[in-house]
Amino acid sequence: MCGIVGYIGHREAYPIIVEGLKRLEYRGYDSAGIALFDGKDLKVSKTKGKVVDLEELSEKEISKHGKLGIGHTRWATHGVPNDINSHPHISNSGDLVIIHNGIIENYASLKKALTLREYTFKSDTDTEVLVNLIEDVKKQEKVKLGKAVQIALNQVIGAYAITVFDKNKPEEVVVARLGSPLAVGIGEDEFFIASDASPFIEYTKDAIYLEDEEMAIIRRHKGIKVRKIKDDSIVAPYIQKLQLNLEEIEKGGFDHFMLKEIHEQPKAISDTYRGRLSRDKAIIKMAGVEDNMKKFLNANRIIIVACGTSWHAGLVAEYIFEDLARIPVEVEYASEFRYRNPVIREDDVLIAISQSGETADTLAAIKLAKSKGAFVFGVCNVVGSSIARETDAGAYTHAGPEIGVASTKAFTTQITVLTLMALRLARAKGTINSSDFHRHLLELEMIPKKVEEALKSDAHIRIIADIYKDAPNCLYLGRGYNFPVALEGALKLKEISYIHAEGYPAAEMKHGPIALIDENMPIVVIATKKGHYEKVVSNIQEIKSRKGKIIGIVTEGDTQVRELADHIIEVPETLESLSPLLNTIPLQLLSYHIAVMLGKNVDQPRNLAKSVTVE
Ligand code: M6R
């Protein structure tokens, strides 16, 4: 969590940093701050609140001039969100200034030792401890800033991406990472530092992504030197050409990123299968799968690990893999898996799903599985992310940047990748015949058009949203492939509207949740044709008998549910195995409209951050 931005060069740093922080607000947004070196001294402005609050404050507080600066947008770990705990933090001498993303786990003992040496602390943060530790090492060992950072980080347990400079040496910035991402953009006689490349995309396409346990000393006129933190060995930096465009990280006329990303799904899904699916040749080709086909075919079972929405995509995948490829699948919350001493064998294949590729628990689950000899495959959206690098092989979803905190296109593109994998393996194993395989390819190619159709219900969904926006609770029911979709619909409503919502397998309702149903309870039931339609219709009857308000997600032309439900939302017909890709769309729109009507901050819901890089 937390977004960090830095600049050293020939331009004014302030606008680059503030604009950059706005692009990184998805990483945390409970406080923000900036430190500039104005040629003579350090100017710091920081506040609880968002980057716009920081802008307002710095207008009054600082001169905003300087060619060197660092900025931070925070998601609080140590210390409540307030002005004092906001970053940047300054060392006791007032010389060193730091921004930090991550957690220093042994900060309490470090703080105690520094306190004995008469260091004092204003904030409750681990970051203020770190900057004073660096200062202490610098003084005690009589070393330069880079060396002091290195020695200090070797005493630290935890995760970090840091940027630090000394106001007495304004030609130099030191950065380091372990467990939190950090990119350095390289321009002409200038350098940009950020948690991801979005803050500097309009200035340079050349970037270095630091690896874990690496640090870099960046000197404006002398360039960048990358070293290993542990043994000081020099690393030859790999400069990547960025593919990202500015338009991809802007709202493009939509009111919110979430809405833009919902509407991007037809393109995102076709980008996901483009180049991998050929209906003419009747093949699916995915490099990461082809290269490791033996591992998949010999797998005893597939274990899927993920969190949140990605976990829901994993649950959909369980149905697809077992149904089509007949491979046993277990789906685990990464946070539980990593700590419960799971049985992992060398013939297990672990699939880790993550939009950001930075989720700490998923990353830890991968490391655990690798240490036990399992083959680990990643399904990520963010290219070059930690999970993409840590896994043995993988497939990108190619959804493009997802900035809204609530995942939308990440979910449908993850399902698309996992479907392609299941089909490819089913073909290799002979568990699907050629006509079924062909039918799947045909239907998959039609999904983007059908998602476009589903999006046309937007105005109708807005009317339904208006009727139920004040409901305190909501249930989501689905069966089979659409049980995970019910979970995902409930999560979307909870996280952006703060309405309590639960997803259940429709048949489970009788085992408890049915007690909640009365005339005030809205119940979204996924009741599309194929699969368990008749069973779901019976469940709807049961709800109706208890006067629940039914919002049915139905296949175009449905008549049976129309008669029973209070409202219906139609989606085009498709195969049952692909139905989650369509049935998710109205649920995303429903939660979006309810949240907007309630005046919630759709793109930045309270207490959340886009990538959860702490456990
Ligand atoms: O980046 P990841 O896919 O690993 O993130 C996992 C979850 O944190 C994420 O899906 C979260 O649940 C979203 N806010 C859901 O909309």
From TrEMBL:
Question: SUPFAM superfamilies this protein is in?
Answer: N-terminal nucleophile aminohydrolases (Ntn hydrolases) (SSF56235), SIS domain (SSF53697)
Q: Which GO terms describe its cellular component?
A: cytosol
Task: Give the residues annotated as active site.
Answer: 2 (nucleophile), 610 (for fru-6p isomerization activity)
Q: What are the TM regions of this chain, as residue ranges?
A: none
Q: What is this protein called?
A: Glutamine--fructose-6-phosphate aminotransferase [isomerizing]
GO terms (molecular function) for this protein are: carbohydrate derivative binding; glutamine-fructose-6-phosphate transaminase (isomerizing) activity
Catalytic activity reads: D-fructose 6-phosphate + L-glutamine = D-glucosamine 6-phosphate + L-glutamate
Q: Which InterPro entries match?
A: GATase_2_dom, GFAT, GFAT_N, GlmS/AgaS_SIS, GlmS/FrlB_SIS, Ntn_hydrolases_N, SIS_dom, SIS_dom_sf
Keywords per UniProt: Aminotransferase, Cytoplasm, Glutamine amidotransferase, Repeat, Transferase
Ranges for domain Glutamine amidotransferase type-2: 2-221
Known partners and oligomeric status: Homodimer.
The record ties this protein, via NCBIfam families, to: glmS (TIGR01135), PRK00331.1 (NF001484)
Localization, per the record, is: Cytoplasm
Annotated EC: 2.6.1.16
- What does it do? Catalyzes the first step in hexosamine metabolism, converting fructose-6P into glucosamine-6P using glutamine as a nitrogen source.
Main location, first listed in the record? cytoplasm
Domain called SIS: residue spans? 292-431, 464-605
- In terms of domain of life, where is this protein from? Bacteria
Q: Which GO terms describe its biological process?
A: amino sugar biosynthetic process; carbohydrate metabolic process; fructose 6-phosphate metabolic process; protein N-linked glycosylation; UDP-N-acetylglucosamine metabolic process
